[in-house]
Sequence to fold (419 residues):
Amino acid sequence: MKEKHIKKNIKVTPVMQQYWEAKSSYPNSIMLFRMGDFYETFEKDAEITSDVLGIALTKRANGAASSVPLAGFPYHALDQYLYKLLKAGYRVAICEQVEDPKHSKGIVKREVVEIVSPGTTISENFLDNNLNNYLCCAFHGGTFIGVTFLDHSTGEFFSNQVLPDDFNNIIFKYDVSEILILESQKEIFSKYYSTKNLVTNLIPDWVGTFDYTNEILCNHFNVKSMKGFGFNKDSFSIISSGIIIHYIKENYKNRIHHINHLKYLSSDNAMKLDYSTIRNLELFKSLLNNSQQGTLLSIIDKTVTSSGSRLLKNWITRPLISKKLINKRLNHLEDFFNDYEFMMKTRTDLKKTYDIKRIISKISCNKANPTDISNLSSSLKFLDSFKKNIPNHAINIKTLIKSMSDNQKIISLIDKTLV
Fold:
């Protein structure tokens, strides 16, 4: 309060006054403040940015007030430097010029257009193509904990309730980069060692109510109730899932159309693997050096696409125990193994495709470029071609993809637009 009072009563430049007004709404984020061809940071943000990015820390004159620390970089290098700030565990608020300086009267209008954090970024520089990047939310309801995971870069969104004793295990199972918890539950979750090294963001308690979170989920999915998704109205998963949608809406200004389904993460048909089992069996990381070399995944992962690699890891994380589901999966594989030529052609063609889920996420967030759109068209063409060329004997695969929609309209639209 004292700091705000001083800044309000001393003479400062209009730009710094504008910066402070914007920064006051995002005190826990590093603010990248667009000034012409540069993103600038000031004060404590500048000191952190200079240290993390290895760029010069200078000072900016501030009218009658003393000069303030300053560090900046060219706007075209945003992805490169944003990646480093996210890797260091910081949230970043991007404040852009939202009007043409040539037409502005007085100081250029600026607004925060996006909040980026380790668990919400869709930047290719930050993401590992073969790994999911999960944002997690946990709500402690006493007897159960509602736990929800969202990969904003693919739209994968799933949730469940777990016993408090199982919380550490479920967090360690997934590639979590950031966790959301209510302000009043900070102390409760600080006792779980699985959260120690995660970027943690505190959410106001008013967000974590059944009524609000249920309403925000129903509005987002355009339904009257979440029962059709497999969730009871009093499930703690409703709260943890609703908090995530609230958080993404706030940070990405409602650009979340690619999140179109919430999956109930049932444990009825999957084996429960605890953290110790996953670690000691070296399923994903070596006990020797914490790398992937020599692990089960590194040996059996012969997939040719990044989405396939991510799916395989998820299958290993939750092995099926239902004989019916196991046989169903094996039947699909059998169609390929019974036709070597079909299998090899499919693998060859898949190598020419791109990550459809992550491209769609970029489109939803207004981050896609012409190359992304062209790659989407190429990948959709493969799907249509694959569907038409499935051998008649591959009955199981035909059944699997018979519900896949015809992509010809969107392919034609993309190709005509990019000509």
In short: The CA atoms of residues 353 and 379 lie 5 Å apart. Confidence is low (pLDDT under 50) at residues 1-6.
